[in-house]
Task: structure prediction
Amino acid sequence: MMKRILFMTAVLLFCVHGLAHAQLGRGEISVGYGMKPVTDWMDTYNDMLLDAVGMQDAVMDSWGGISVNYSFRLIGGFGIGATFVYSSNDQRLNGQSVSTRYYSIMPHLKMRWLNLRILSLYSRVNAGLTFAESKGAGQSCSAEKFAWQISPIGVELGGRLAAYAEAGVGTVGSLIVGLRFRF
Result:
């Protein structure tokens, strides 16, 4: 399953990269960390194996989502791209443990609505697919689920290399911080 995810991600990024250079020759890549993704708190994501092993009231440990984005501008402040996100959580109850890993790939739309010399404000919407794998109590299970992210406000500070922060909700996180490189 991991090979399939990596292959789809590579094909998508290759296509987006080729289209970026064909259109404008301007792209950006960013790496970020998202706190409290929906995979940590929405039951549709984290109940895959819990019912089967009787751990509905388990204590959860998670460390958020790591994302890699590739975007390019089409016209003005409007851009498109792709986002890959990895997140995980571990749940424990009475000596039993269930570990779940999430791999998400999502195309995104980005609208930069204020673009000053070193400050930019933008909004981003993502929709795609999450591949989830759960293991625990001698059992395993995998599933595909809908992945999404809505970030109504994002702030970038810098030039070609910039720091950014986004506030929103979804598979990437509720508060996302990271670095962006424009080329």
Q: What stands out?
A: Residues 2-23 form the longest helix (22 residues). The two ends are 32 Å apart (CA to CA). Confidence is low (pLDDT under 50) at residues 20-24.
